[in-house]
Amino acid sequence: MDVTSTQTTTATGGTAKSDAGSTGSAMISSDFETFLKMLTVQMENQDPLNPMESTDFAVQLATFSGVEQQVQTNALLEAMAGQLGAMSMSDLAGWVGMEARAVSAAWFSNTPLTLRAEPASGAERAYLVVRDSAGAIVDRVEVPVSDEPLQWAGVSGGGDPLPAGLYSFNLESYSQGKMIADRQMAVYSEVVEARVENGETILVLQGGAEVAASEVDALRMPELPG
Hints:
The chain has 2 helices and 12 strands. The chain is α+β, with helices and mostly antiparallel strands.
């Protein structure tokens, strides 16, 4: 992640909020002067035989005061939102370097990958199916019907080591000889970048795959080489 770029963006955002608050204050001052002029003209031109009640003036003043309070509150909320945005960027830095588990393609480079197995209810047999970035099946092997994590060593069905690259994983569930489910599996991948887009946190995984933070169901520290 480009830390310098992030800090620059945050600083610029803070200036914009400050300018917005100053503009809002100036508008309130200008509007209040206009309001007083209109109120004075209204008093000067009222019917002397049917003058306005003092309560009417009080209501008008209270209404303007309420609008003024709302404008100031909105300016304060905008400033707080800018500060919270800066805090979120600081929190995002904690994702980088962690391993996130999500349904996505994963980068393999001679280090076994940990997969989440979720056989369908009623499954009697299950098969792990591995595809490369082109969608070709490079491995298909029967696995236990269990929700225990699986380790994929990165070898083909013939036992040959596979090259580094992006791979996706599906779990096929069978019952009475028929496939009852074919689901893409969640896999742990290292987070190399985190950013906010349209209010949503997006994680960039090793190899370039992207997932929303809301799609991550587990986080862990990177496993040290054995």
